Amino acid sequence: MEAPAVVLRQVVRTFGRQRALDCLDLDVAPGEVVGLLGHNGAGKTTTTRLVVGLLPPSAGQVRVLGLDPAVDGPAVRRRVGVLPSRPPVDGRLTARGNLRYGADLFAVPRTGLAERIDAALASAGLLDRAEMRVEHFSAGMRQRLALARVLLPEPEVLLLDEPGAALDPLAVRELRGQIARLARQDQRAVLLCTHDLAEAEQLCDRVVVLDRGRVRAAGSPRELAAQLPVSGVEIDVHSTDLPVVLRLLPDAVQTGRLADVVTVRVGETRRESLPELTALLVRAGASVYAVRPQQASLEDVYVALYQGVSAA
Amino acid sequence: MNMRGVAAVMARDLGVTLRTKAVLVPMILVPFLLLVVVPAMVGIVGSMADAVRVPALDQALSGLLGWLPSDVAADLPGAGAGQHAAAAALLYLFAPLYLVVPLMVALVLAADSIAGERERGTLEALLLSPLTDREILAAKLFGAWVPAAVVGVGGAVLYSGVVDATLGVAVGQWLFPNTAWVLLAFWVGPALSGFALTLGVIVSARARTAQGAQQIGSIFVLSLVVVFAGQATGLLFVGPATLLALGALLWVATLLMVAGGSLWLARSKLAERIG
Fold first, then answer.
1. Which of chain B's residues have a Cβ under 8 Å away from the Cβ of A56?
2. Given A114, A273, A300, B204, which residue has the most CB atoms within 10 angstroms?
3. DSSP per-residue codes, B151-215
């Protein structure tokens, strides 16, 4: 993996006596999507603002593409695209006017700019509304336009704060595909702040869970989930063996049947005990066709973390 | 300096101003009333006053003229007391009122500069751009100062035309241009605009809404009312020397505030207030 595009080391940020970030370590490499999860006020927005030099850290080190945002803010911001939670488009301008304004602020080369703006509008599905003032746009249209504007200068690093908010399910799906392409194909480093845990699970290579400015857990969604007990196990056995299974596993519940195969579900189980469980059934003479542990989701991890159950 | 970015912010602010009725209407209506309607009425009434001789009115006008500083009385051979009084009002008394125009335009635009962006949710986008703090400040100041200066100078030209077309024609002498008004239009007016809008941008950076910023900034207008009262009572004589000094003072104060701009328009401070 390439050297990280975004590096935060032991970063502290205070507002008065309140610590918004407390010794935060974070890396985002090119081609990687890192999710920043946490409740409101956990420190996600503060983190993105530190990365673009909008706020200086109170302590610690921030480096973006090798630059210190607090010192080289304009140079960093030229190479970083930020989509804040509130779409930063000007309602008084047209869709095209917003993109042109953004292009001027970021000094996007004028050669071929009109074509690039048309292409951006087309990719946002707004080409037919290019001359309409944005104040008449729906929230979803504004969000798509904002993303188009962020991508127009072709930033190397993307900071996306709830990008799927206000989008309909189809647009969300399209957006996720776009984010994945930007990371995997175009090798952009993406930091994704989201409350949508399914989105994080699907998109992120790694997630960092923040709680009041501190890292509560970090790793790939799979790694984090693996630290929790499996939420359940589905076992397929021959229908004639069902009484044996129910005798050995009193908590088991039949959940399905397909011809001679019945499926039973057993509740939360420690991962390490699965081979033993299978052997127990086989020894009792049951014909076991499949054992499927139900993997804990990122949502389970998140809930467990916030309920005080140690997942780390 | 990222001139393209600065020009983009200025052009957008100006373009939006010209399309926003709530901003544009007072920017046209107030100057029209103060610099066209009022001087036209005074000029017409003044030019006709001597045709209808009313001894009591003559006496009152002579008294008024005697009360004003001697420098104020325009040298109008053959003109009566009414025409002299109208000339004194238009050339001297209305000078502070004229300054309301560039001041008001500057305040309206300055109030909208940062607080308006915050209200519309576009401030964060501006702060997330590669523009430096000084470039944002320059864009906001020049973007408001240019229209304020244009309206101010244009207003003075219009005012001069109205006065010459009414009273000037009646007395057979051009009353404009004169030194005091040239200084007002090209020196004090632009300086006052610069001063007011720099202070207005400071207020705007701290106010939550553009309306709040306007209310705070409108305190300025009161200072002009005081000057007007001083003029009307003869207590304060704003002649060319005073105007030169006043303009210089305003420019120096403005430059000092701009120089300290990075202290009060720091990105981090604005970002903290976005929420």
1. 268
2. B204
3. HHHHHHHHHHHHHIIIIIHHHTS---S-HHHHHIIIIIHHHHHHHHHHHHHHHHHH-SSHHHHHH
- Rounded-to-integer distance, Cα B174 and Cα B178, Å: 9
Contact B128/A78, CB-based, under 8 Å? no
ipTM: 0.76
> CA-to-CA distance for B119 and B134, rounded, in angstroms?
22
Classify residue A229 by its DSSP letter.
Answer: P
For residue range A144-184, list pLDDT tens digits in order: 999 999 999 999 999 999 888 778 888 888 888 889 999 99
- With an 8 Å Cβ cutoff, are B12 and A105 in contact? no
Best of A15, A79, A101, A145 to disrupt the B interface (most B CBs within 10 Å) is A101
Subunit contact B120:A91, Cβ cutoff 8 A: yes
Partner B, chain A 61-120, Cβ-Cβ below 8 Å: 73-75, 77-78, 82, 84, 86-93, 97, 101-102, 104-107
pTM of this structure = 0.78
What is the CB neighbour count within 10 angstroms for residue B185? 24
Count the neighbouring beta carbons within 10 Å of the beta carbon of residue B46: 28
Q: What gap in Å lies between CA B198 and CA B151, rounded to an integer?
A: 17
